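Re: that backbone. Tokens:
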């Protein structure tokens, strides 16, 4: 829209430069699709300590203490099971998700 306004002479060069600089995102563009899928079981003890500041075997204790639910629902509508469930619990959760 900004470029169109400039091309149609709705805004001046100075206005375009000012608005362009102000509208640029400060967030870096990370190619997230090129990173491997996150998997806690595949993380080493050292990786867990370095990335999460928690020992790997303490993560399940944190999960209990923080009362992380079996089904996690995001604001935008994504629903997925907690990965620390047993396979049977995971199937039950997926069945509940499919029935909703």
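Recovered sequence:
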């Amino acid at each position: 829209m900004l470029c169109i306004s400039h091309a149609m002479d709705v805004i001046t060069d100075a206005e375009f430069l000012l608005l362009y600089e102000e509208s640029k995102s400060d967030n870096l563009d990370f190619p997230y699709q090129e990173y491997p899928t996150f998997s806690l079981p595949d993380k080493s003890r050292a990786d867990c300590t370095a990335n999460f500041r928690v020992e790997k075997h303490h993560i399940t204790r944190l999960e209990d203490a923080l009362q992380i639910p079996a089904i996690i629902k995001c604001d935008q509508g994504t629903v997925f099971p907690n990965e620390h469930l047993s396979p049977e619990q995971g199937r039950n959760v997926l069945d509940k998700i499919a029935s909703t």
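The longest strand covers residues 71-73. The beta strands are 71-73, 79-81.
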